[in-house]
Design goal:
Elements (H helix, E strand, L loop, with lengths): L2 H5 L18 E8 L5 H8 L5 E8 L7 H5 L5 H6 L9 E4 L2 H7 L1 H13 L10 E3 L1 H11 L4 E6 L3 H13 L3 E7 L5 H5 L3 H12 L6 E4 L10 H8 L2 E4 H12 L20
Parallel strand pairs: 1-2, 1-3, 3-4, 5-6, 5-7, 7-8
């Protein structure tokens, strides 16, 4: 090697310090549907907090939302969970599908995610909490002390009916319900927020409703939450809002957060 070669050789053995890295307050993992165009965008705003890190993994999902296609995701959940960065030590992992959780079942979703986390020896999966929008919504409604809800969905009747039945079995009353009756994820993702706001107002005007729940992580709800709550004088939650709130609270981030609706002033119910 000539003197010129040595002069241009890269330096080695540089000194460095180690710090806590990203997520010194909370490290969150999110399993996103292949067809979801919305949840990552909304989570950037909902989780824009110092010391909170979010890591994504994708799961195969069908463009058509039916009970059959939703059920197929159960088999792919372990792989999607395993692909999250286990070395960081995740505090919470969320599966981002309300309807899929309804069809598969909350316990099966949690078990499948845990299986994937345990396949990565660095995850510390025994300490990792697992949640999903359905569990998060029920917890959110209890935190808000809401028992009678207006319900908005984008789904076909079979999926809407399954979710309504589950919520009613859990003790929630649903006096008002409205659906866009869509099965194509690409259409759901492009339903205008103004149309979603109109739907929220239409079901939420019923005085019997304590709150309004808008289901589906692919609906763009975050931008109209505050306007809807101001118009109705009651809490409005969405799948994304509830899931982000639940993940933060499970990770120990408990302060009230402005600009995210009434829910983000609440802590986990006892």
């Amino acid at each position: 090697m000539t003197a010129l070669d040595y002069a241009h050789a890269p330096a080695t053995g540089l000194p460095f310090d180690i710090d806590p890295g990203l997520g010194h307050r909370a490290k969150l993992g999110l399993i996103v549907l292949e067809t979801d165009q919305t949840i990552e965008q909304e989570f950037r705003s909902l989780l824009d907090l110092d010391g909170v890190a979010l890591f994504h993994s994708r799961i195969p999902s069908d463009p058509e939302v039916t009970a059959e296609t939703l059920a197929q995701m159960e088999a792919d959940l372990p792989t999607a969970a395993r692909l999250l960065p286990g070395a960081v030590g995740l505090d919470v992992v969320g599966y981002g599908c309300t309807s899929g959780t309804t069809i598969i079942g909350e316990e099966k979703v949690a078990a499948a995610v845990k299986t994937g986390l345990q396949a990565n020896a660095n995850t510390g999966s025994n300490q990792t909490s697992v949640t999903n929008p359905l569990t998060a919504v029920k917890t959110s409604l209890r935190a808000l002390e809401a028992t009678s809800i207006g319900f908005v969905t984008p789904y076909l009747p079979e999926v809407t009916g399954a979710m309504r039945g589950h919520l009613e079995q859990q003790g929630f009353k649903i006096p008002e319900i409205a659906s866009f009756n869509q099965s194509e994820e690409d259409i759901v993702a492009r339903i205008a927020p103004a149309s979603i706001l109109d739907a929220i107002i239409s079901v939420g005007r019923n005085d019997v409703c304590d709150a309004v729940f808008v289901s589906c992580t692919n609906l763009r709800v975050l931008g109209v939450i505050e306007e809807a709550e101001a118009e109705l004088g009651k809490a409005v939650i969405s799948s994304n809002l509830a899931l982000a709130w639940h993940m933060l609270r499970l990770a120990g981030v408990a302060e009230s957060l402005p600009g995210r609706g009434k829910l983000f002033s609440r802590t986990l119910p006892s």
